[in-house]
TrEMBL record:
It comes from Nonomuraea longicatena. It comes from the Bacteria. The lineage of its organism: Bacteria, Bacillati, Actinomycetota, Actinomycetes, Streptosporangiales. This is NurA domain-containing protein.
Length: 312
């Protein structure tokens, strides 16, 4: 008998579980310590204990390329490709009364591999110069992402100066693992990290359950666990997100954190009739992304302003 199921995400987006990740289950090169919370052969779905935190901060960042550019200099007549980009970071506080915007900050940048990358001023925005490691689009994009991540860190540090609230950041924790009580939240799975017996536990999770905590290392080390959000689909890993926490946390502290985060995530799960990436795209993340993109300004207006500045 052959059957099939339909991935709950809108087909305009990549699947929540990448095909290459599904094909590589059981074949990971990551460093793994599986016995943080349970022995490797004792793994099974975990129903979180305790209570959800009274307040949860959710941080996210967005980016947009406003124009592709070429940088020229009298000292180096060979033109160098670059990008003019806008980016923003913000934070939402989620509590019993709903979600409130806590902070928003905007940045503009002109990135190229040229050491002569200029500052560009227009009537609507100023683009600060930054140098990328190389001229490829991948290297330009990486340089931009570093600025987005740094702005997210800056917002978190400034806003949490008088707060010990749990912070959830959209995306891997890399570059932010030094922040206290902070968890990275990954919606899409491009790599399968767990061996087959433990990966099977992920498929067995019921909504509201998580895997045991484990430690993994690739180019950097962190604690991690998988959690399944409320979802109606029966597709592989439907509604599954991965969470990451600092590798410096003691076992009992990261287990407690995993329980708190799992309980906090359940009421924030996206719903499919509102969000094409539900349930992993949490309601406050979707709302914050929309707000941040609005704060980036009119892309057409900024593009025209950049063209005028280039001609002047």
């Amino acid at each position: 008998m052959t059957d099939f199921s339909v991935d709950p995400w809108d087909p305009g987006y990549a699947a929540a579980l990448a095909v290459e990740a599904l094909a590589e289950l059981g074949a990971t090169s990551a460093e793994l310590v599986l016995d943080i919370e349970a022995g490797p052969m004792e793994w099974g779905p975990v129903r979180p204990r305790g209570e959800a935190p009274k307040s949860l901060l959710v941080a996210d960042g967005v980016r947009r390329i406003d124009a592709r550019v070429w940088v020229r200099s009298d000292d180096d007549p060979m033109p160098v490709p670059g990008i003019a980009a806008s980016y923003a970071a913000g934070m939402v506080r989620c509590g019993p009364g709903g979600a409130d915007l806590a902070a928003v900050e905007i940045g503009r940048t002109l990135i190229s591999a040229s050491p002569y990358t200029p500052e560009v001023k227009t009537p609507h925005a100023t683009y600060a110069p930054r140098q990328a490691a190389g001229p490829s689009m991948e290297e330009l994009s990486l340089a931009l992402q570093r600025q987005v991540t740094q702005l997210e860190v800056d917002v978190a540090v400034r806003y949490r100066a008088d707060s010990d609230d749990l912070l959830l950041v959209d995306g891997p924790l890399r570059g932010r693992s030094h922040l206290p009580a902070t968890v990275g939240y990954i919606k899409t799975h491009h790599t399968a990290y767990l061996p087959a017996p433990q990966a099977a536990v992920v498929s067995e999770l019921a909504p509201g359950e998580r895997t045991p905590v484990f430690l993994m290392g690739t180019s950097w080390r962190r604690h991690a666990w998988y959690v399944r959000l409320p979802v109606r689909s029966a597709t592989p890993w439907a509604g599954v997100a991965r969470c990451e926490a600092s590798a410096e946390l003691a076992a009992e502290d990261v287990v407690r954190l995993a329980d708190e985060v799992t309980l906090a995530l359940l009421p924030l799960a996206g719903v499919d009739y509102k969000d094409p990436r539900a349930p992993q795209n949490l309601v406050p993340i979707g709302g914050l992304e929309k707000l941040l993109r609005h704060h980036l300004g009119d892309a057409r207006l900024l593009y025209r302003a950049l063209r005028t500045a280039a001609q002047g």
